[in-house]
Amino acid sequence: MTLMTLRPNVRTVTSSWHSSVAALPAERRPATPFHSREWAAVWQSVRTEQVRGRHHLFLQDGPRQHRLSFYQINHSPLWRAMEGDAGVKQPTFDADVLYGPSIYSEYGGLPGATVPVLAEAVDRGRALARQLGTEALVIANVPPAERTLWREARTPDAEVVLSWAHRARVGGSVDEFIASFPSSQIGREFREQHRRGTEAGLTLKIARGTDLLPHLPEFAAQARATSELHGPALYGTDMLAPLTRVPGAVALLAEHSDGTLAGGFLCFRYGSALYLWATAVDQSRPEALHTYDWLMYEIAKYAVATGANVLDTGRGNYAYKARLGMLPVALTSAVYLTHPNPHLISRLGALHCGLNQHVLRAWNKA
């Protein structure tokens, strides 16, 4: 009998850099709108987030193809907002950072990729970060299902849960959605706020894709003012206008009787979910018109009408979403340093702890 040495089936992952995402093959079906080629293309021209360089990594794993976009960023208003929420005393980074992708993507990572693919993505990304002279590579907003795989691929120097997404089952009707709330009292108040908004004259306008463009100046101004209630302005028309071309883009807008905008959400109706991404509320009279609750009710109706099984209400506003019983989903950003830096590790730890305390305080208020 001849003994044969069994050798493992070694998979070879190949990768290449591209300056434009348009040069890469289109995905069969991206896992979320945030993983689409159209989403990555938005950051080719964004100025609200100060992007100094754009690099798109194409990865081939046998017949499977993946893409991850990396952005050299000097200033990210969203990262600054996270630092404000955490109450940290100084900026986390002293120099540029390479993000893969931008933290404006609610969900990051590489859904469906194997550990060798993730290892290749980190190795190529970290080498690029060193070449560019940045402080770190940040693999942003990895959901729980992928977090262990990224750790197995390459152990990060630090991990920070920057934010939590929120999800809820919609059911077959708004009544069924409300029935899932933690108490009947919360459901009655939710309905009452919607009734008051309707009596105040609010009506819903649905603007799909580029139909939002005529409303964009007013929407963008209100979105900036809404975010400035808690920190820096997060949005600009340079970001919002190209996002209307992302698959499933739809704006659900609350209008006054005279046609002016009371507020709205920029959403993505994609796959089995309706994703809420950017919020705009007219800050001159939000309480009088109960705009936010009114819109949330209308959004649930829209989700039901379009067959969405899941309502993903995105990040932030933790107390409100916890009060409605929505499931929080931790989004972890893995940080790989380009050079040893214990002070930066300490600041990242303080950011992580501060954000965790910020969320716990909000949940305790719910």
What does it look like?
This protein has helices at 37-42, 77-86, 115-132, 144-153, 174-179, 184-199, 216-227, 237-243, 286-289, 291-305, 318-323, 342-365; strands spanning 13-18, 50-61, 64-75, 97-100, 136-142, 158-169, 203-208, 249-255, 261-270, 273-281, 310-312, 327-337. The chain is α+β, with helices and mostly antiparallel strands and 366 residues long. The longest helix has 24 residues, at 342-365. Helix 2 (77-86) packs across helix 12 and helix 6 packs across helix 10. It contains twelve helices and twelve strands. It is globular and about 60 Å long.
In a few lines, what is going on in this structure?
Helix content is 37%, strand content 27%. The chain has 366 residues and is of the alpha+beta class.
Features:
about 375 residues; alpha+beta; twelve-stranded mixed sheet; 12 helices; globular; disordered N terminus
Write the topology of this structure.
Layout: E1 13-18, H1 37-42, E2 50-61, E3 64-75, H2 77-86, E4 97-100, H3 115-132, E5 136-142, H4 144-153, E6 158-169, H5 174-179, H6 184-199, E7 203-208, H7 216-227, H8 237-243, E8 249-255, E9 261-270, E10 273-281, H9 286-289, H10 291-305, E11 310-312, H11 318-323, E12 327-337, H12 342-365
Parallel strand pairs: 4-5, 10-11
Antiparallel strand pairs: 1-2, 2-3, 3-4, 5-12, 6-11, 6-12, 7-8, 8-9, 9-10
Helix pairs in contact: 2-12, 3-4, 6-10
